[in-house]
Design a protein that fits this description.
The protein is of the alpha+beta class and 264 residues long. The chain has helices at residues 14-28, 40-66, 98-101, 131-136, 141-150, 183-188, 250-263; strands spanning 128-129, 153-161, 168-176, 196-200, 208-212, 225-233, 236-244.
């Protein structure tokens, strides 16, 4: 191993290391395969690649800087002349259902028959039912109030009358906003009709009319027969209720339901 003048051990060069390896092989009488050092060549190649990439990027910036700026399109656009002449006529009520349903909903209620009398305690005010007024007409009013909010209740109207001393009729139209679900269809098809026989209402997709088979009886009260009809069209749900101490014919509830749906 070489030693400099100060007595320090000098660095071993590649040639010295190779000679030492050959001497070891000669001593032991076995061939020694030289191992090529790795790392220095790869490092040089990687450094050259990085320098080339930097040089290429700088050249690209220089070329781009010498070019003329690209003109942007004008922000102002030509004004489109307004069409002349009369515009299209608005749709009639027969073509646009909202012309009817966004107006006074009370006008769509079936007309009371001749000779009909007012009930003692009509619901709502002047034919209109608020959310609370309508919920109060149903069983489990508190739960119904929350369900109506979820169903996106919009407004409701009602007409009620009596023909004899023992009967009463109530017809209601309930409109829903239907922004997130089909409230009218869901509400019209979700009524308790246990103990009643039903028939489809002609002219509707799934409207039904029901008549109770047996009256509801309680001690001290007259027997109570019930008939009900439910259907929907667009965002409006229809419901009809008939109460009487005598049996109610299917023809009576069916006639009211068909005539009311025709007005929708």
């Amino acid at each position: 191993m070489p030693v400099d003048g100060s007595g320090a051990v000098g660095a071993v060069g590649d040639a010295d290391l190779a000679g030492a390896v050959d001497d070891v092989g000669a001593v032991f009488g076995e061939p020694v395969t030289r191992v090529r050092r790795r790392g220095r060549t790869a490092l040089l190649i990687a450094t050259s690649a990085v320098l080339g990439l930097v040089a290429g990027t700088c050249a690209g910036y220089l070329v781009q800087a010498d070019r003329e700026p690209t003109k942007l399109p004008s922000l102002s656009q030509p004004v489109v002349a307004q069409a002349k002449g009369a515009g299209p006529e608005p749709l009639s009520a027969a073509q646009d259902r909202r012309v009817k349903t966004d107006g006074d909903l009370r006008k769509l209620l079936i007309k009371r028959p001749q000779g009909a009398r007012d009930v003692d305690y009509p619901a709502g005010q002047d034919g209109w039912l608020s959310l609370g007024d309508y919920a109060d007409q149903l069983k489990n009013a508190d739960q119904e109030f929350g369900d109506l909010v979820s169903a996106e209740f919009r407004r409701a109207v009602s007409t009620e009358w009596r023909m004899g001393n023992t009967d009463s009729v109530a017809v209601r139209l309930v409109q829903y906003r239907q922004e997130e679900n089909l409230g009218a269809a869901e509400r019209a098809g979700n009524w308790n009709v246990d103990g009643a026989s039903g028939r489809p209402i002609p002219g509707t997709s799934d409207g039904m009319a029901y008549v109770t088979d047996k009256p509801d009886t309680k001690p001290g009260y007259l027997p109570l027969y019930t008939a009900q009809a439910h259907a929907w069209r667009g965002d409006i749900a229809m419901e009809i209720w008939i109460y009487d101490t005598k049996p109610i014919s299917k023809a009576k509830i069916m006639d009211l339901a068909k005539r009311q749906m025709e007005r929708l």
